[in-house]
Amino acid sequence: MTAPAESRRPDRGLMPKGVTRARGTLGRLVLLAASILLLGQTVVAWFAVTGFERVLEPQLSRKADVVGRAVASQLRFVVNDLRIPPDELVAVDPFLDKILSSNSDIKYLLILDASSEVLFARGVSPEVLERILPGLPDSRSAATSKSEVSGFINGAFPIVTDDAVSAVLHVGVSGEYVRNRLSDLLYEAVTVIVVSLLVTLEILMFMMSVRVSGPMERIETMLADGARGIFGNQLLIRSGDEIGQLVSALNRTLRSLRQRYEDFQFDAREIRDAQIDKGIAQRIWTACQQVDDRYRFAGGEALRPRSAMQMRVPLFLFMFAEELPRSFLPLFVARLSPVDATISDELLFGLPIALFMLAGAVTVPFGGRLSDRFGARAVFLAGIVPAIIGYFGTFLAQGYYDLIGWRVLSGFGYGLIFIAAQAWVAENTQERSRAQDMSVFVGAVFAATICGPSIGGILAGRIGYEATFLISATLAVVSGLIVYTMLDKGPTRRPMLRVASVGDEWRALLSDGRLFAVTIFAAVPGKLILAGFLFYLVPLYLSELGNRQSVIGWMIMLYGVSTLLCMPFATRFADRSGRHATVVAVGGVVAGLGCLASLSDHAVGGASNAVMIAILALGVGHALSLASQLAIVQEMASRHHSLGQASIIGAYRLVERAGMVLGPVVAGALAASFGYQGAIVGIGVIVLVSIVLYMIMMQISERPSLVRRRKIA
Q: Are residues 60 and 177 in contact, defined by beta-carbon separation less than 8 angstroms?
């Protein structure tokens, strides 16, 4: 007797060779597209930077000439028409200071008398003035001219009285300004190249997964089922391209086979009923049963291509929208903060960030239960509404408390979207590659972390803080439209036994030693250092050190870059070795030690370099730990069947978000007592102590499981 059809189904956990080849082809296509795009953008950026350098210096010289002539004409009027000697002029210093404040590219304004003695000097220190004076042209023979003087482009504008030079105005433009502007342009060009490359790759991988590799995996599965006699399934794809035409032809063939089988069954029943000899009728019925056992034409399902990758682009776009104001949000809060507050400025600046995180944390457990009940797609769309309203409200905010209210509203939407996206990814992962599949979720978040702060810093410098929130709202709208149009509703999932209560979720967290350790001593400190150090301290500290907004955004971008570069290697190692707990510990140690680099900032070239080292270390540490944390939690959650996986993950996220809430508060309190540098070191110490406790707890929780396994053996 041939084996039943159910026993001959292909193992869905095994990766077919055709799928492996398809993914290899997809990887090569992505690499080719990235190489072509990177080459083109690099060439364009090179011509832009070199062209800017050729144009900027003559433009600065012309501007200095215009300013010099305007100031010289006013001095001539006072000296010649009003007959006031140059050495008797009053209120000249405020006049020159106002001109310098309005023209940041002009470095100094000097007025020398006929004997080249300094009458007025603004914009230079006494040391620099002593270095400049010997190179200036002699006042007696001065004429309107330009020359290179100690690294400055100097313009001389004589004041002539009665055919004699009575004074000379010198206007200096520093070559440092040109270099700074070129540096800004270079940062922005690199940022645009990286961001456009990542956005293109995200969209390309999404389209290839949704339109090509995902449907092809389903088609290969259906063909494998057909080879084993299973013809009841049907693939549903709404597409008119070549893949859609192939699916339509396959579905037509399957419907034709099912119709022929039904016709065969009808004819066989008629022939059987028409038989007088019962033995012949029995043999016909047996043959029909054997056909039923060997082939299955009924009881199939309508298959839709569903994968974790489908959530990547909408999640990336929303997280991109949320990350846009990351590099300037504390500075924006400082602008709207009240001046008569009773708490310190450091805590005041961190309060909107902390309350945003608190709103997201409160929403997470409800989002988990809603995802179990109504599906991740519906919860994602529900979360988009308050998020968009919050962005528009922040754009219109007129005061500190308005800002807090709108940010809290955005936080509610953020929490719903975050847990809905994670629930979708968790529903479409395979057990054998859990960490790599969860890296789809983590990778989208960190790709947005690369793109958002850097582009947000550039936009804030060009269009202002408020208008950047309008762009965030637009990106959020686009992410919601993608989810609405491209993700299927899927089956509405309901709890098998009962709706999990908050108490059930907390008991699950507290009763499982490994789940408790990874949540309290690894996840919470990881979020605390992220929110306290990267989101709060980095913008304020780098701004205090004199870094420009584009540089701050670029520095924060390094966190996402280092995370994405290291994550594929970390997840593969964790999955192959099975040492998820050890990988989490190593990641926490790397992140904590990075913050201690501020103790030796002189050895690394300055405080800004120490911050950059800490950012890179945080990125590497999170690349090691985050995906493995999610893999451990998902493994533990799968043991609590009655609660639902999304509910357990929601409880984990709720506790984890406590670190996001505490981060700005702890960082603000440390900064108020020890300064920004001391706060960075303090957060690093907190993380290292937590990781030590995590390793102790994991060892304690491992011992009972080892004893149980030995007893079973």
A: yes
- Residues 387, 528, single domain; the answer is yes
> Per mean pLDDT, which range of 18-27, 266-275, 551-560 is the poorest?
18-27
Higher pLDDT: 574 or 6? It is 574
How many helices and strands, by DSSP H and E, does the chain display? Answer: 22, 7
Which residues fall within 8 angstroms of residue 25, CB to CB, at 6 or more apart? none
Same domain, 239 and 266: yes
Whole-prediction pTM value? Answer: 0.67
Which domain does 529 fall in, by range?
306-488+500-706
CB atoms within 10 A of CB 68: 22
On whether both 89 and 154 belong to a single domain, the answer is yes
- For the packed helices 345-374 and 400-427, what is the interaxial angle rounded to 10 degrees? 40
pLDDT surpassing 80 at residue 306: no
Count structural domains, the chain: 3
Helix, strand, coil distribution of the chain in percent, nearest 5: 75, 5, 15
For residue 490, the 8-state DSSP code is: -
Q: List the beta bridge partners of residue 106.
A: 173
Helix axes 92-102, 17-76, angle to 10 degrees: 160
User: Do 337 and 448 have their domain in common?
Assistant: yes
Tally the residues of the chain: 713
**Whether residues 614 and 583 fall in one domain:** yes
With 80 as the cut, is the pLDDT of residue 486 above it?
no
Contact 5, 227 (CB under 8 A): no
Same domain, 173 and 236: no
Do 165 and 267 share a domain, yes or no?
Answer: no
CATH number assigned to the domain comprising residue 317: 1.20.1250.20
Of 698, 666, 660, 662, the C-alpha closest to 680 is: 666
Question: From the CB of residue 442, how many other CB atoms can be counted at a distance below 10 Å?
Answer: 22
Q: Is residue 633 part of a domain?
A: yes
DSSP summary character for residue 500: P
- Considering only CA atoms, which of 697, 311, 243 is closest in space to residue 486? 311
